[in-house]
């Protein structure tokens, strides 16, 4: 599955690096990365997750760097024997082009035992740029769910979704329907509107209506 890079997300996985170490205690000292679509990105950060192949931000490798065509991350990561995993995460610019794409590949890895050139197992795969329209606690709403997207006769994009105000559970709860509009193809969006709110009934609070 190829996930897009989303504007407003603090972390977007750009690539995963796996190093199969033949023996323990090898040190990774530097990772050189080449970027495509670097102008759409604000910054990048590598993370070392060890034997865990899922993205985690607990152990940064090196510092967060500004996006350029070529960047070098310098840090220290001690490998164990077997597979060791790194993740490159990026933050997109607020004005990133939604028609743009981005990609990253590793040019070289400097270790305590020498220089490595990894094999790219996903060549020519590009990630689209998108936008996270709604996030946890946006406008004081706990959870947004069940989105729908439509285009009006005038070309306006309409995004509609559940606004689960207190928590993520289904009915009965305080759930309204929200709407966002975009008149420029999704690059910018207007303020959120509540288009359906059942209110209260017979004096009972909204979360039980």
From TrEMBL:
<dbReference type="Pfam" id="PF14873">
    <property type="entry name" value="BNR_assoc_N"/>
</dbReference>
<dbReference type="InterPro" id="IPR029456">
    <property type="entry name" value="Sialidase_N"/>
</dbReference>
<protein>
    <recommendedName>
        <fullName>Sialidase N-terminal domain-containing protein</fullName>
    </recommendedName>
</protein>
<dbReference type="InterPro" id="IPR036278">
    <property type="entry name" value="Sialidase_sf"/>
</dbReference>
<feature type="domain" description="Sialidase N-terminal">
    <location>
        <begin position="3"/>
        <end position="111"/>
    </location>
</feature>
């Amino acid at each position: 599955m190829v996930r897009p890079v989303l504007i407003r997300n603090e972390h977007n996985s750009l690539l995963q690096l796996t190093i199969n170490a033949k023996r323990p205690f090898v040190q990774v000292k530097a990772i050189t990365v080449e970027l495509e679509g670097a102008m759409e990105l604000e910054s990048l950060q590598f993370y070392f997750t060890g034997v865990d192949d899922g993205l985690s931000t607990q152990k940064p490798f090196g510092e967060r760097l500004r996006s350029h065509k070529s960047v070098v991350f310098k840090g220290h990561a001690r490998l164990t024997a077997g597979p060791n995993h790194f993740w490159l995460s990026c933050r997109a610019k607020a004005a990133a082009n939604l028609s743009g794409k981005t990609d990253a590949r590793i040019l070289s890895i400097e270790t305590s035992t020498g220089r490595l050139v990894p094999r790219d197992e996903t060549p020519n795969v590009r990630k689209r740029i998108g936008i996270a329209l709604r996030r946890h606690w946006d406008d004081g709403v706990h959870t947004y769910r069940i989105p729908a997207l439509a285009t009006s006769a005038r070309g306006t994009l309409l995004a509609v979704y559940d606004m689960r105000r207190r928590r993520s559970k289904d009915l009965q709860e305080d759930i309204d329907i929200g709407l966002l509009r975009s008149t420029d193809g999704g690059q910018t969006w207007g303020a959120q509107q509540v288009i359906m709110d059942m209110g209260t009934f017979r004096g009972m609070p909204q979360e039980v209506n």
